[in-house]
């Protein structure tokens, strides 16, 4: 499980996270939504100390750290519990798709290369990329690079996978394929925490939805509770604005497929 208690983070004079508390149960998919600048990505990055929190405790699996007195060894142990799929892919440009997936297995886990390669090819096949195993990132589309990033995240068998807006850097034509891969992983009951602006996807894949604004968790509940019966006015306003913007985008994109509309709309 993931348990966050009294988490706070400040950048200079700006308080980005204000006393955050939430839990993610084993096998649960939790989606975090909210306006830009609400602290969603910072929260995700604090969970593996890519950003160091100022205060609070974080538990992932069997590892618990206190931000006020954490040691380097504890941070390293915490990081082994999660993998992150980044907004901008963050693949090694000088490594093939297969090498990107197997790098941590060989370098960090000291796995035999042949064994690592077999695992890597199996995972690339799972995300529909095994035919590109020997290709370098420069020759891959954004959607293909992100699918390699997802395979890389799966390779180390983490307790949980963190997705930081995994489709926000993609051209619209590639969004659906990446969301389908993530949905397939969710169906296998892998613990996941996903930051996204795709409301229809959130409704489809989430066990629980967390709405953040201005550095706090405003409201959380099932997809039905948040999308159909939100209690907080700030949540209602956000969803109304999203629905309005989505309708305008679809009107402009007259070539949007029915599949894309179904996957991304609420």
Could you tell me the number of beta strands? 10
**Low-confidence spans:** none
Ends distance: 28 Å
| Strand order across the largest sheet | 6-7-8-3-9-10
Shape: globular
Specify the helix fraction band.
40-55%
Query: Which percent range describes the beta-strand content?
Result: 15-25%
Count up the helices.
Answer: 10
Characterize the largest beta sheet: strand count, sense, and whether it forms a barrel.
6 strands, mixed
What is Rg? 19 Å
Question: How confident overall, as mean pLDDT?
Answer: 91
SSE pattern: EEEHEEHEHHHEHEHEEHHH
- Structural class label: alpha/beta
Question: What do these coordinates show?
Answer:
- With 266 residues, the chain is of the alpha/beta class.
- 41% of the residues lie in helices and 23% in strands.
- Helix 3 packs across helix 4 and helix 3 runs parallel beside helix 5.
- The model has no long low-confidence stretch (mean pLDDT 91).
Present the secondary structure layout:
Elements (H helix, E strand, L loop, with lengths): L1 E10 L2 E11 L4 E5 L6 H8 L7 E6 L2 E4 L5 H8 L2 E4 L11 H11 L5 H14 L15 H14 L4 E5 L7 H15 L5 E4 L3 H7 L2 E6 L2 E6 L1 H6 L4 H20 L5 H7 L2
Parallel strand pairs: 3-8, 3-9, 6-7, 7-8
Antiparallel strand pairs: 1-2, 1-4, 4-5, 9-10
Helix pairs in contact: 3-4, 3-5, 4-5, 5-6
Can you describe this structure in just a few lines?
This protein has 266 residues and is of the alpha/beta class. It has helices at 40-47, 72-79, 97-107, 113-126, 142-155, 172-186, 199-205, 223-228, 233-252, 258-264; strands at 2-11, 14-24, 29-33, 55-60, 63-66, 82-85, 160-164, 192-195, 208-213, 216-221. Strand 7 (160-164), helix 6 and strand 8 form a beta-alpha-beta unit.
